[in-house]
Structure formats: structure tokens, C-alpha cells
Design a protein that fits this description.
CATH class: Mainly Alpha
CATH architecture: Orthogonal Bundle
Distance between the termini: 53 Å
Structural class: alpha+beta
Radius of gyration: 35 Å
Number of strands: 2
CATH topology: Helix Hairpins
Strand order of the largest sheet: 1-2
Order of helices and strands: HEEH
Number of helices: 2
């Protein structure tokens, strides 16, 4: 029981830290979604240009996404570092003038989408660890510690009964010893 009570505060701290981190990631996700929506709203003025027969996707491709591994409360999570694009040369005489701006917007949108994917993975990993930690906290608080307390109570009752029985046996033995000693 002492071990459970000593370990429980550590689990509770881990649970609180994970809850804080999940909230931070949720906030980051909402901020990235707002940023993405702002970009799309900014595009409304010239989005009709995309209806022209120009494939912007052929001018830009994601070459590499650099990630590192971070650790939050013992959970390894992916952390976005950077994204590298592979750009095909643009023929400025054969393409409309907005293609450069379109490519830049596509780069920003791709970066946001990649960041969102990584944040969602972070949230998924941390939420799973939070679920497991919450289960452990509940197990300790609601099952193991009360179970140990009940076992200790039963052991104390048993030992008290044994002590009482030992005293009674000692008194009986003393009485018999007195009888034998006095010869009756």
C-alpha cells in the first residue's frame, strides 16, 4: 500500500502533464486550421484563375519532410522541423503571371497540412498515453489502495484475535500451572 501511495502522485502528475500537452496540441491544431482558412479566404479573390488549364501540382512536389523525435512525459512523439520542396522550372512566357503566387500558396498550404498531420499524430499518441495513465490512476485510487486497506484491516483483526487468544491461553495455562503446583 505504501508503494501504491508513493507511486500514485507520480501518476497523477503525469496525467496532468499529458492533459496540458493534449490541450496545447489541440490549440496548435485549431491555430493551423485558422491559418489554412485565412489562406483560402485570401485566395477567394483570385481562385477563379485556377480554373485556367494550368497544373500547379506539376511545378511543386514535396521532396522531404524533416521530423525529429520529442519526448513528453515519457512518450516519444514526432516533431515537425521543416519541409523541402522540389520545384520544376516555370516557363514565364508560357504560363500565366499568377503561377508563381499559386506555387507559393501551394507551398504554404502543403506545409500547414503536413504540420496538421504531425500534430494529429502527436495528439493521438499523447491521448493514448493519457488514457492508459488515467486507467492506472483509477486502478490505484479505486481498486488497489482500497483493496490493500481492506486486507490490512483484516490482518489487524486477525492479529488482534490471535493476541486475545494468546492471552486467554496464557491465563488458562497459568491457571493449570497453579493447580498442578498447589496439587489440586
Amino acid at each position: 500500500m505504501r508503494r501504491y501511495k508513493r507511486y500514485l502522485p507520480t501518476l497523477e502528475l503525469k496525467k496532468m502533464q499529458l492533459q496540458i500537452e493534449v490541450r496545447k496540441i489541440d490549440h496548435l491544431i485549431s491555430e493551423k486550421k485558422k491559418e489554412e482558412n485565412q489562406i483560402w479566404e485570401g485566395l477567394n479573390a483570385w481562385i477563379r484563375l485556377f480554373s485556367e488549364d494550368v497544373d500547379i501540382g506539376s511545378y511543386i512536389k514535396v521532396k522531404d519532410v524533416k521530423r525529429s523525435i520529442g519526448n513528453i512525459a515519457g512518450v516519444n512523439i514526432p516533431v515537425f522541423d521543416s519541409v523541402e520542396y522540389e520545384r520544376s522550372p516555370v516557363d514565364y512566357f508560357a504560363t500565366p503571371p499568377w503561377v508563381d503566387d499559386g506555387i507559393a500558396v501551394m507551398e504554404r498550404l502543403l506545409k500547414i497540412r503536413i504540420e496538421l498531420t504531425i500534430y494529429e499524430r502527436q495528439r493521438e499518441l499523447l491521448s493514448e498515453e493519457l488514457r492508459v495513465t488515467s486507467q492506472r490512476v483509477n486502478l490505484f485510487e479505486k481498486v488497489k489502495i482500497p483493496e490493500c486497506a481492506e486486507n490490512i484491516r483484516q490482518i489487524r483483526i486477525y492479529l488482534a484475535d490471535e493476541q486475545t487468544a494468546a492471552v486467554v491461553r496464557a491465563k488458562i495455562a497459568k491457571g493449570k500451572f497453579q493447580e498442578v503446583k498447589t496439587g489440586s
